[in-house]
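S2.1 Query sequence (Mg/Co/Ni transporter MgtE (Contains CBS domain))
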Amino acid sequence: MTTVSRAYVSRLAGLPVFDPNGDRVGKVRDVVVALRVGTAAPRVLGLVVEVVARRRIFVPMGRVTTLDPASVVLSSGTLSLKRFEQRRGETLVLGELLDRRVQLLESDRPAAVVDAGIEQTRTGDWVLSRLAVQEPGRLGRRGQLHQVAWDEVGGLGLPQTGQGAETLIATYRELNAADLAHALQDLPVTRRQEVAEALDDERLADVLGELPEADQIAILGTLVESRAADVLEVMDPDDAADLLAELSHVDRDRLLELMEPDEADPVRRLLQYTEDTAGGIMTSEPVVLAPDGTIAEALARVREPELTPALASQVYVCRPPSATPTGRYLGLAHTQRLLREPPSSLVSGVLDDLEPLRPEAPLAEVTRYFATYNLVAAPVVDDQGRLVGAVSVDDVLDHLLPEDWRERARRG
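Output structure tokens follow.
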């Protein structure tokens, strides 16, 4: 199997999609991109995959671990089966870009798009970097075919001016979530709502996690309930629980009912814990491996792009099941230690038997624990010896700092 870093979209159409266990999920039907201002190459957001009963779902590009000429393989984790709905600012390559009329900038001749090439950058992101375009033919003959870079044609990028939300979002495309959150806070309320509605679910979820609670609630309240539930699903469970905890019981229960059960259940469990305890600030989705897993498997898991650096610093070894609450917790393996061991060795042979935190441990105890053992993440285990989550240092800092620390940072 050869993993490629470049592919033409027409060749992806119809490819089978598999999960990490080799089970078939569906097949590729289209590629979703976000156009940018001017001639900047569009960012690839994900794939439209057709599953059972011709239902089409969205799979973020970050979930794609292998792309080869015969198949697409996804990383582990829950796959949302919600029907794909195209958002503002999103463009379907096969459905909307092909056959579009463009202008070849070098010769100033017209042409039509017949295919589009996507490419993985050094940072791991995918962009739509190349186009196959064809000039109009004469006397029934086909015109000349060209392969050109995205910035060698005109007529596809977003305009530099105007008040459409798509243009503003394209301007903000390169900002990290924290900087985009600051930019949103400076916008008028109506404009902020337009931008929030136009952002894709994952991007909006990341931005909400960087906003003060009052702004989170205000933005969530402007969304229709089904969209709000979609955004909560892709948020980290601990962030979603913190946000829902600020809502009324009626609104909270309604949104939890609209979420997929597999996504709502861990959030419900986190809501049971008291705020400012290990259970109240932990995430329920750490990296968990069975004791017969190898060092190579562990290193592959911590490479998953959606993991934060803190959560990627450790692998927790537990008896099945591997989803929290797991089977009996056996210990943790530090990523730095894994890098020094043979890839074929078992991860259970390099465990640190550090005493884990209890869910009811107060914030002061959690802070002392991190300082004592020089950690950036720590396991949380219940009375039955099951791993229920992990606390990361960013969550500890978030609860130690004043409630308005984000607002102070925005003001400089």
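Residues 95-154 form one domain. Residues 1 and 140 are 42 Å apart (CA to CA).
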